[in-house]
Specification:
This protein is of the alpha+beta class and 673 residues long. It folds into 4 domains: 143 residues, no CATH class; 142 residues; 139 residues, no CATH class; 148 residues, Sandwich (Immunoglobulin-like). Helix content is 23%, strand content 32%. The chain has a 9-stranded antiparallel sheet with strand order 4-3-2-1-6-7-8-9-5. Strands 13-12-11-10-15-16-17-18-14 form a 9-stranded antiparallel sheet. A 9-stranded antiparallel sheet has the order 22-21-20-19-24-25-26-27-23, with no helix packed on it. A hairpin with a 6-residue loop joins strand 7 and strand 8. The longest helix has 36 residues. The chain is elongated and about 140 Å long.
């Protein structure tokens, strides 16, 4: 019995759901029929390719067209210009979904003693014609005309005459609002529409006889193709393209001739090419007319600017555009302003050797990268290679990578010559260059176009024999001559001592200093310092009795002897005398350190390392000589200050003691009368 009841209930639920489903479909169908019955237009508004808007009392007709469903809309009248796609699509949308609140027949008006003129429909306040092409209409092209009349007295609606002229519909105001717009809303004001990332080339042509300038993007780089082949500066180039994309047409002119606007002989022609499209702007003479600029645009670009006559090459329409003076100047001087100012283009990680040559140098200085030992100074002949300071080599490569043109005088260009004559090459000092730097690079991946990357780059730096001895440079294999800063040679030293590794010695693990002795060479029997560690004693214990300044100085000396570093090298040969303030002078002090090194048998091996010290000179320099390493060098500041404390502090009288100022005698009190 329960099973039968369950089955009956299940059947009733299914039946109820079916009734609800079908009833809902019927209801939706009825609603759709009712909604479609309110539509003023049928399929006339689908696939529209032409629109024409005319207002009562105005001779001007606005006509918009497009060549296909995906093609952009364009204004054909009263000007020939790209249309604002959003504004046109809004009109199309209003036509497709134009619903009537209510409708009544035209015949009924005549029976009631009324006419279309009473509703502003004869003549109409506004008329809209739209055309469907033959391909969409399924036959010949079809043009539909819609007349728009007055607003209703109640409800803020509009009267619209049906295309067949038989009915008057009452519709919302949104259609009229989409039609009653100014030309500035129906047209787009942009000139260039190709975004920066899509631009493949930029062409510039100034008024004759200026040469044509053309730049092309190659992957992530920009390069000049004309009038010379060289690298372009990526950042300024893309800033210029962004500036072109910000240009706007601020006013359209129909009563100016080509000659009056200067567009028969443009002062500037700008061409931007993207993916399968090209846009060219012709700029005429500057206009005396004050163009109206939107407030928001003025806030975005408050820089000084000038109004010019202009037109797009593929359109006859003349308009005014405001071009910032800085952008216009950059475009006029593009061959210099967009050119890459850096002389060398290389990857520092690929550099395997650096060769530096200078006049009077007996042998070239060769710095070579070793995968095991880092950078080395390769000695001439068969001598051993010396370790080079990796940080200094890195700084040298950075300086070369950032080496840029620098005009010799204000207003001049740093790009001196693109095709110098033999006489100019000699005058620029390249017959005997002051520096010749060759970078040897490891083979890299092929460049764009399948060209192999260069494996040698040679830079020559010369000093001019004329023009006040300016500094110039060129890269071998290229014809360009660049102006450099006057102090460029100071940053390109050729002495091996400059690049030598500053660390002379670091004590190995397990080694320690067990004694230190500092004595004047003229008084060797009376050392200034002589300390030795007892068995198991630490330096903290040995120095506990010293004063705080001497204890800190002795610890600095011990640290400096443990890791012996040069501030800079003076000579790669140790000599019994050294130069102090330009005079040959014997060494003033001897600094000895006793080193305990771990032996194979467990007993420590003793050795003594010695430094010869000169008198401190110039207040901030003190030379040291090492017979062990065969060099003379300037000690680092920490060791220099510590040696000052140990050699001069006790004899330093300190600042002079000034006598106290005399105290004036106190005045006698005056007795009261």
């Amino acid at each position: 019995m329960r099973t039968k009841v369950t089955l009956v209930l299940l059947f009733l639920n299914v039946a109820l759901l079916a009734v609800i489903f079908y009833a809902r479909r019927e209801l939706q169908a009825e609603q759709e029929i009712a909604r479609l019955s309110k539509r003023v237009l049928g399929d006339e508004a689908i696939g529209v390719t032409a629109l024409e808007i005319a207002a009562a009392g105005q001779a001007r007709v606005i006509r918009l067209e497009r060549s296909g469903d995906t093609a952009p809309w364009e204004l054909k009248a009263p000007i020939n210009w790209p249309a604002n796609d959003f504004a046109v699509r809004r009109i199309i949308h209003e036509l497709e979904f134009l619903d009537a609140e209510t409708s009544f027949s035209v015949q009924g008006l005549e029976k009631n003693g009324q006419s279309l003129a009473d509703y502003g429909l004869k003549p109409s306040r506004l008329s809209l014609s739209f055309t469907r092409p033959a391909a969409v209409a399924g036959g010949p092209a079809r043009t539909t005309r819609l007349e728009i009349g007055d607003a209703t007295k109640v409800g803020n609606r509009l009267y619209v005459l049906s295309p067949d002229g038989k009915k008057v519909h009452v519709v919302g105001r949104s259609l009229a609002e989409s039609l009653i717009v100014g030309m500035e809303d129906l047209r787009t004001d942009t000139l260039f529409t190709i975004p920066v990332f899509e631009v493949r080339s930029l062409g510039l042509q100034n008024a004759a006889p200026a040469p044509r300038v053309r730049l092309r993007r190659d992957a992530a780089r920009w390069a000049f193709e004309a009038p010379i082949v060289t690298r372009a500066n990526k950042a300024p180039t893309e800033v210029v393209i962004s500036g072109l994309n910000r240009l706007r047409a601020v006013d359209f002119l129909n009563d100016v001739s080509v000659a009056d606007s200067g567009l028969d002989k443009p002062v500037l022609r700008v061409t931007v090419e993207g993916n399968s499209r090209r846009e060219t702007l012709l700029v005429g003479r500057a206009s005396s007319v004050k163009a109206v600029v939107k407030a928001e645009d003025a806030k975005k670009d408050p820089a000084p600017s000038t109004v010019y006559y202009a037109r797009m090459e593929d359109r006859p329409q003349v308009f005014l555009t405001t071009i910032p003076d800085s952008l216009f100047d950059t475009l006029r001087r593009a061959q210099e302003s967009l050119r890459e100012p850096r002389l060398l283009d290389f990857d520092a990680e690929r550099v395997s050797a650096i060769t530096l040559v200078a006049p009077g140098q007996p042998e070239p200085l060769v710095l070579r990268r070793n995968d095991t030992n880092g950078w080395q100074i390769v000695a001439a002949g068969s001598g051993p290679a010396l370790a080079a300071d990796t940080q200094l080599i890195t700084h040298l490569l950075q300086r070369l990578a950032l080496l840029s043109v620098a005009p010799h005088a204000p207003g001049e260009s740093g790009f001196l010559r693109d095709a110098p004559s033999d006489a100019e090459i000699e005058n620029f000092g390249f017959n005997l260059p002051q520096r010749e730097i060759t970078l040897t690079l490891a083979p890299g991946a092929p460049a764009a176009g399948g060209l192999a990357s260069p494996t040698r780059i040679t830079l020559q730096v010369g000093v001019s024999s004329v023009q006040g001895g300016g500094v110039q440079a060129r890269v071998l294999g290229q014809s360009f001559v660049y102006a450099l800063a006057a102090d460029t040679l100071n940053g390109l030293p050729v002495s091996p001592l400059v690049y030598r590794e500053r660390t002379l010695r670091t004590l190995p693990e397990g080694a320690r200093i067990t004694g230190v002795r500092l004595a004047e060479n003229s008084l060797p029997a009376k050392p200034l310092i002589e300390l030795h560690l007892a068995d198991g004693q630490s330096w903290d214990e040995a120095l506990a009795a010293e004063s705080e300044p001497r204890r800190a100085a002795l610890k600095a000396v011990l640290a400096g002897l443990s890791t012996l570093r040069a501030k800079q090298f003076v000579s790669d040969t140790f000599t019994p005398t050294t130069l102090v303030d330009g005079m040959p002078t014997p060494w003033k002090y001897t600094l000895e350190a006793t080193l305990a090194l771990g032996g194979a048998s467990g007993a420590p091996l003793k050795s003594v390392t010695t430094l010869q010290l000169a008198e401190r000179s110039g207040g901030g320099a003190q030379l040291a000589g090492s017979p062990e390493f065969g060099v003379v060098f300037a000690v680092e500041q920490t060791l220099l200050d510590a040696l000052w404390t140990l050699t001069y502090a006790e004899r330093d009288p300190g600042p002079p003691v000034l006598a106290p100022a005399p105290v004036p005698p106190a005045s006698s009190p005056v007795a009261a009368p």
